[in-house]
Amino acid sequence: MGIQMDDNRPIFVQIAELIENDIIDGTVPEETQVPSTNQFAAFYSINPATAAKGVNLLVEQGILYKKRGIGMFVAAGARSELTNKRRQQFYEQYVVAMIREAAKLGITTEQLSEMIRKGDEDR
């Protein structure tokens, strides 16, 4: 299960992120149905209103849309939109922070590039 109760982020945000992850990795392709809020609630043992709040967050962002009487579906272009959003978050959270820390430690751009190359070889 992907919900971590010790996570400081609200559960509905975590639900939205789990759906995003499934869209990004192709588990849930565009134009296919996502589980219902009741299914999310049962699977993660959370309140259905909390699950609905997470799903509605993605509806507001245009990632999911509702087919009346059928359920929620992944919008066309959602994967690309989410990938772009996550890349920007990655840049802001990790790359900028890494460059700032490297500058504090006197690590040059060349040294930092070498560290990244070495890390890539080691994985």
How do you describe this structure in short?
The chain is mostly helical and about 120 residues long. The chain contains five helices and two strands.
Spatial extent as radius of gyration: 18 Å
Give the CA-based shape. elongated
Q: Secondary-structure element order, as H and E? A: HHHEEHH
Oligomerization state: single chain
End-to-end CA span: 26 Å
Main beta-sheet strand count, sense and barrel state: 2 strands, antiparallel
**What share of residues are in beta strands?**
5-15%
The count of strands amounts to: 2
Count of individual helical segments: 5
The class by helix and strand makeup works out as mainly alpha
Q: Percent range for helical residues?
A: 55-70%
Strand order of the largest sheet: 1-2
Mean of residue pLDDT?
A: 91
Description of the molecule:
- The protein is mainly alpha-helical.
- Helices cover 62% and strands 7% of the residues.
- The chain contains 5 helices and 2 strands, in the order H-H-H-E-E-H-H.
- It has a two-stranded antiparallel ribbon.
- The protein is elongated, with a radius of gyration of 18 Å.
- The two termini are 26 Å apart.
- The relative contact order is 0.12.
